[in-house]
């Protein structure tokens, strides 16, 4: 019976309970007071957390199976076909390269990570600034949007050597490539998120006496954050590649540089080991963003679970 | 005047007939004089949405505007709230046509429009916060209202966890807290199912009668108007004109049984025939009914 259950969520789920039932529900909630309601709420939260952990385990399970299957297939192919292991090493050989070259890989990873973070930070700052600017000014939107789209048509692999000439072989040129690669999805996602604000909500806030900036800050920006995070997730997935490409073109350190070293000494296994590290780095950064998003937008995820909104 | 809502929070029953009425003579709280609204509808064409609407709302009164969809009643409410400008005509608060209305008149939209990232208390205080009230004070005022609104214990619940009726009550609390003199209700039950609507109508009638809030309700539901209002204006289809003005002969708040009263039934028949006047419908432009 719903009325015996003080969990508000159930009421929301079923939607239209009868008015008598609802009055009874709120009356019992009043008698028990806020502490009990809060307790019920926490109990519910725990159950949700448990269910989510199970859900995420079952979400990871298929990809783990796929990875293991792929590795086995790879190993099996190399062994069975008798292909030159210089050309195509086994996963086991890649793993041992990872362990033996651990220190060099780690040192170069730190360089790439640092470039990525600087470039990504700059992309975040410029992306948000441009996104907000083109939202607040229709004139700027019309002026900048075509330029932004055109900027994405520049092949970064061709731009990287120029940046090398202009900014030197150090970190700056790499960070710039990362920024160019990352800022666009952030701008588009934020601008679209802001544009998608409910006109009725804006009207309501204006009726409170809110000006443009207040409406922006209190109603539109928080509502655009889920969209912004989608853009950030896309951007962070690209960011490491940006740094690696730039290093590949010319650098003195970093994973891209290390790859070229291994390539020049015909160490396929070294290149593949570096791929693995690159992938892990991308994955870690992506997971970090996802975690920040969960912490920053708890309402978005509970809402999604509750009603599939 | 600005302190009226504050007073209402502290002593449940404020003296409604305060200074404003006495100082400004017999001016009603809200006077709408000959308001028309014309929209540009593309290719140099214009569309007359409202045609010379005049009405008034006295202090403490509950007035309903009943009209078919697309008669411009929501537009009129937006104009009264200060969200849109009238093409011609004047709107006066306490006899003052220059009085600011944005931020002074409580406006309640059809959908609850709760912010999903704020809990119930955060949503109820959203308007007060915009108006510069400190968080602690805004929350104290909202908490005082929550018991009355059947929301005690749900202060920290997020909108996704609330039922439709509760969400709408949080939205009412948000509007009530920013209402100084006048509350505008734009089909506030339109998005609810029939039973929730009936329960909420009754609750609202009792609560507003107790608080003595002056209200202007827009609806297409004659029964809703009869259940809640002291006085009813019936509007014609677009362009909206006042077709009929009637006083409801029973005191507020009313029960469901009151609606079966013969006088109410007669009034309902009269209002419906005014609203469903076939000749008027024939003259009216036929384009789709944007609210």
What would the keywords be for this entry?
heterodimer, A: 309 residues, mainly alpha, MetI-like fold, 2 domains, 12 helices, 85% helix, disordered N terminus, disordered C terminus, B: 291 residues, alpha/beta, Rossmann fold, 6-stranded mixed sheet, 3-stranded antiparallel sheet, 9 strands, globular
How would you describe the overall organization of this protein?
The complex is a heterodimer of chains A (309) and B (291). Chain A is mainly alpha-helical. Chain A has two domains: 2-59, no CATH class; 90-307, MetI-like (MetI-like fold). Chain A is 85% helix and 0% strand. Chain A has helices at 8-14, 19-81, 91-100, 102-136, 138-151, 156-167, 171-195, 199-207, 212-249, 255-264, 268-296, 298-307. In chain A, helix 6 (156-167) crosses helix 7 (171-195) and helix 10 (255-264) runs antiparallel to helix 11 (268-296). The radius of gyration of chain A is 26 Å and the shape is flat. The two termini of chain A are 26 Å apart. Chain B has a domain at 26-103 and 187-203 and 214-285: Rossmann fold (3-Layer(aba) Sandwich). In chain B, helix 6 crosses helix 7. Chain B is 36% helix and 20% strand. The radius of gyration of chain B is 19 Å and the shape is globular. Chain B is of the alpha/beta class and 291 residues long. The longest helix of chain B is centred in the last third of the chain and has 18 residues, at 194-211. Chains A and B meet through helix 1, helix 2, helix 8, helix 9 and helix 12 of A and helix 5, helix 7 and helix 8 of B.
What CATH architecture of the domain at 26-103 and 187-203 and 214-285 in chain B do you see?
A: 3-Layer(aba) Sandwich
Query: What best-fitting shape of chain A do the alpha-carbon axes yield?
Result: flat
The number of helices of chain B is: 11
Shape of chain B: globular
Number of strands of chain A: 0
Please state the CA-atom Rg of chain B, rounded to the nearest Å: 19 Å
Largest sheet of chain A: none
Assembly of the depicted chains: heterodimer
Largest interface: A-B, 48 and 47 residues
CATH superfamily of the domain at 26-103 and 187-203 and 214-285 in chain B: P-loop containing nucleotide triphosphate hydrolases
Mean pLDDT score of chain A: 83
CATH class of the largest domain in chain A: Mainly Alpha
For the record, what CATH class of the domain at 26-103 and 187-203 and 214-285 in chain B applies?
A: Alpha Beta
Which stretches of chain A are low in confidence, meaning pLDDT under 50 for 5 or more residues running?
1-39, 304-309
Taking the sheet with the most strands of chain B, its summary is: 6 strands, mixed
Percent of residues of chain A in beta strands? under 5%
């Amino acid at each position: 019976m719903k009325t015996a259950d003080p969990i508000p969520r159930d009421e929301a789920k079923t939607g239209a309970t009868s008015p008598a039932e609802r009055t009874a529900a709120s009356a019992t909630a009043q008698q028990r007071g806020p502490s009990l309601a809060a307790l019920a709420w926490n109990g519910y939260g725990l159950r949700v957390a448990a269910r989510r952990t199970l859900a995420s385990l079952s979400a990871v399970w298929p990809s783990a199976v796929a990875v293991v299957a792929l590795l086995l297939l790879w190993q099996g192919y190399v062994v069975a076909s008798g292909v030159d292991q210089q050309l195509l090493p086994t996963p086991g050989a890649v793993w041992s390269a990872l362990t033996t070259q651990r220190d060099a890989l780690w040192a170069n990873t730190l360089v790439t990570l640092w470039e990525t973070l600087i470039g990504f930070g700059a992309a975040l700052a410029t992306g948000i600034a441009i996104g907000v600017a083109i939202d607040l000014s229709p004139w700027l939107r019309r002026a900048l949007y075509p330029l932004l789209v055109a900027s994405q048509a520049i092949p970064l692999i061709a731009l990287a050597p120029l940046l090398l000439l202009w900014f030197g072989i150090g970190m700056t040129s790499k960070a710039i490539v990362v920024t160019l690669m990352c800022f666009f999805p952030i701008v588009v996602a934020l601008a679209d998120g802001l544009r998608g604000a409910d006109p009725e909500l804006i009207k309501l806030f204006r009726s409170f006496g809110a000006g443009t900036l207040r409406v922006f800050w209190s109603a539109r920006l928080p509502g655009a954050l889920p969209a912004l995070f989608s853009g950030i997730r896309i951007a962070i997935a690209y960011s490491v590649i940006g740094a690696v490409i730039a290093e590949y073109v010319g650098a003195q350190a970093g994973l891209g540089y290390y790859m070229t070293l291994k390539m020049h000494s015909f160490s396929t296994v070294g290149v593949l080991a570096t791929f693995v590290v690159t992938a892990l780095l991308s994955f870690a950064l992506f997971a970090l963003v996802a975690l920040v998003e969960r912490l920053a937008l708890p309402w978005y995820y509970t809402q999604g679970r509750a009603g599939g909104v | 005047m600005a302190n009226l809502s504050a007073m209402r929070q502290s002593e449940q029953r404020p003296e409604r007939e305060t200074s404003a009425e006495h100082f400004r003579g017999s001016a009603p709280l809200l006077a709408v004089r000959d308001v028309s609204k014309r929209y540009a509808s593309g290719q140099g064409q214009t569309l007359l949405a409202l045609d010379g609407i005049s009405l008034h709302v006295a202090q403490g009164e509950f007035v309903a505007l009943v009209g078919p969809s697309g008669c411009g009643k929501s537009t009129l409410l937006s104009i009264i709230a200060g969200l849109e400008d009238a093409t011609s005509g004047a709107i006066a608060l306490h006899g003052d046509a220059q009085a600011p209305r944005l931020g002074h008149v409580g406006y309640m939209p059809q959908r609850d429009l709760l912010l999903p990232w704020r809990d119930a208390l955060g949503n109820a205080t959203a308007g007060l916060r915009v108006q510069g009230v400190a968080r602690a004070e805004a929350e104290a005022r909202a908490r005082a209202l929550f018991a009355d609104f059947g929301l005690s214990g749900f202060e920290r619940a997020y909108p996704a966890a609330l039922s439709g009726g509760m969400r709408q009550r949080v939205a009412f609390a948000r509007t009530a807290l920013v209402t100084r003199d006048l509350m505008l209700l734009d089909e506030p039950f339109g998005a609810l199912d029939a039973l929730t609507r009936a329960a909420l109508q009754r609750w609202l009638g009792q609560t507003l009668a107790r608080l003595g809030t002056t209200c202007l309700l827009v609806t297409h539901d004659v029964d809703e108007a009869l259940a809640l209002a002291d006085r009813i204006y019936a509007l014609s289809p677009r362009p909206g004109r006042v077709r009929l003005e009637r006083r409801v002969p029973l005191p507020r708040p009313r029960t469901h049984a009151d609606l079966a009263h013969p006088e109410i039934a007669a009034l309902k028949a009269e209002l419906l025939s005014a609203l469903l006047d076939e000749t008027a419908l024939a003259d009216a432009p036929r384009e789709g009914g944007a609210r």
